[in-house]
Amino acid sequence: MRLIDADLLSEELNSFSMRITGSANSMAIAVMEETKKSITKMIDEQPTAYDVDKVMDQIRKREVLFRGKKINGKWVAGCLLIDYVSGKYFIHANGNSVNESDKTQEEGCLKFFAYEVDPETACQYTGSPDKNGRKIFEGDIVKRELLNSFVIGEVVWLDTGVCGFYLKCKSICYPIGKDENSKKSECDEVIGNIFDNTELLKGDTNGKTDNM
Q1: 157, 124 in Cβ contact below 8 A?
Q2: Could you report the per-residue pLDDT of 8-50, keeping only the tens digit for each?
C-alpha cells in the first residue's frame, strides 16, 4: 500500500484536463469532463488508509515505556532520562519515586532513583505484547507465524513511509501491532533480543511450521 495526497492528485488531474482539452473539439471536451468527474468521484470515495486523528488517539493511549541494560548487565524498564551535559542515559524504574513535597513546601517535588544504562541498549516499548503477553520492545527478536510458515526478525523503528515499529526480516518489513479486535499480537513471539541473542538472526530466518 502507498499513501498519496488525494488533493494534489485532483489538482494534477484538473491541470492535465486543461492541457488536453486546450485545442480539442467540443465532443472531446465533453468526454474529458465526464471522465474527470468520474475519476474525481472515485478518488473522493476511497477510504482513508491512514487516519491521523485515530493514530494520534492511539499514541496518547499507548503506554510509554523504555528499557535498557544497567552497568551490571541486568535489564531495567521504566522512564528514560537523558543527561545532555554528560551524555549519559538513565532509566527511572517504575515505583522508585518518593513524594517530598512536604519537605520542600513545593507541590510536585519527587525524589527518585534512576539507573544508568548503556545508551546503545535503550529501546522503546512498541505498545503491543506478543502472543504470550510479553511486551515487545524495539531491538527484540521476534518469531512471526505466517500461513504455514514463519519468519524471524528484529523489531525496528522506521521513520519513512508510514512511521512505526516494524519486524524487519532481511529485505521485508512487517508492521508490529495489534488490530482493534485483538488484545495482543497473536502471531508474534519474542524469542530474544539483538543484544543478548544475536545468533538467532544468523542463518535461515525463514521456515515452515510443523503442521505442513
Answers
A1: yes
A2: 877 887 787 777 766 667 777 777 788 878 888 887 777 666 6
The pLDDT tens digits for 154-185 are 999 998 777 889 999 988 898 887 654 455 56
**Cα 128 from Cα 134, distance rounded (Å):** 9
In this structure, what C-alpha cell is assigned to residue 96?
522508585
Read off the pLDDT of residues 58-103 as tens digits, 9 standing for 90 and up: 667 777 899 999 999 999 999 999 999 999 999 988 766 556 555 6
Interacting residues of 49 by C-beta distance below 8 A, sequence separation 6+: 1, 3
Phi, then psi, of 79 in degrees rounded to 5: -95, 130
**Global model pTM greater than 0.90:** no
Residue in 171, 202, 187 with CA at minimum distance from that of residue 136: 187
Q: Which residue has the cell 489538482?
A: 11
3-state secondary structure the chain: CCCCCHHHHHHHHHHHHHHHCCCCCHHHHHHHHHHHHHHHHHHHCCCCCCCHHHHHHHHHHCCCCEEEEECCCCEEEEEEEEECCCCEEEEEECCCEEECHHHHCCCCCEEECCEEECHHHCEEEEEEECCCCCEEECCEEEEEEECCEEEEEEEEEECCCCCEEEEEECCEEEECCCCCCCCCCCCEEEEEECCCCHHHHCCCCEEECCCC
Nearest Cα to Cα of residue 142 among 100, 184, 109 = 184
